[in-house]
Amino acid sequence: MNNNILNTIKELAENKEIELPFIDSTIENAMPSTVALQQIVEILTGILFPGYFTDSALNKKNLQFYIGANVDKVSKLLYEQIKRGFCFECNDSEKDCDLCNSKADEKTIKFINRLPKIKHLLKTDVEASFLGDPASKNRGEVIYCYPGISALTNYRIAHELLLLGVPLIPRIITEMAHSKTGIDIHPGAKIDEFFAIDHGTGIVIGETCVIGKNVKIYQGVTLGAKSFPLDSEGNPIKGIARHPIVEDNVVIYSGATILGRVVVGEGSMIGGNVWVTHNVAPNSKILQRRAKEQEFLAGAGI
Prior knowledge:
Number of domains: 2
CATH class of the largest domain: Mainly Alpha
Helix content: 40-55%
Distance between the termini: 66 Å
Order of helices and strands: HHHHHHHHEEEEEEEEEEEEEE
Strand content: 5-15%
CATH topology of the largest domain: serine acetyltransferase, domain 1
Mean pLDDT: 90
């Protein structure tokens, strides 16, 4: 091999300047698989919306068998990925793999038991999108076609895993939906039932957002952080509440940007392309100024 190439390989193998964590990945300590996680999400989606995302012929007589078989399948796959998530997080040189195995088994069982809750929330999201969009012909169309439901399916799965203390895996799952739909929902956000996303592209919902019942948002909306304090070394302090609280029955139109730990009061409407960095009283309307109309004669004033 050329000496220049050998030097390049040596340089790539070294940690210089900004050190990146090195993952000592072995068969016993493999890293999470995005391929396996995508398969898990697909199986879970088939369980949560039976009959929509499967080639199997389903009816009332075989539905329970179908769900049972897929719950068994997804449990085995999920256990392995949760275990790998704990391995990724583990910084102990004396790794206790038996403990990680035990935790992965416990979290998998608890997550499966939360699937009815996830299904209920997604049904309310489908209902909100169907009732809130005159273009939707039926609820099945919403389930099949709406990117908001796809993103919320990943989010609601990931959120429950995050609540169970599963590391890394929730973030991978929501980022899969982000890549697919353009909708970026952090798994740490708290989103109540009957949440509708219309169109969806470019939506950002931050980690500490709290969204109430019957909220609807349009494309390009950002629920983000305005600023955040730094520690003594100049690094952002993690985990502090820095994103908006959106109360019940709020509509946020396209392009609106709401930043910081502000409260958008119940029943309010935030107009398109508005920039909000302060609390909004309940039942308020926040709108842009009207465009100024001006006429020019023979090009004068242009």
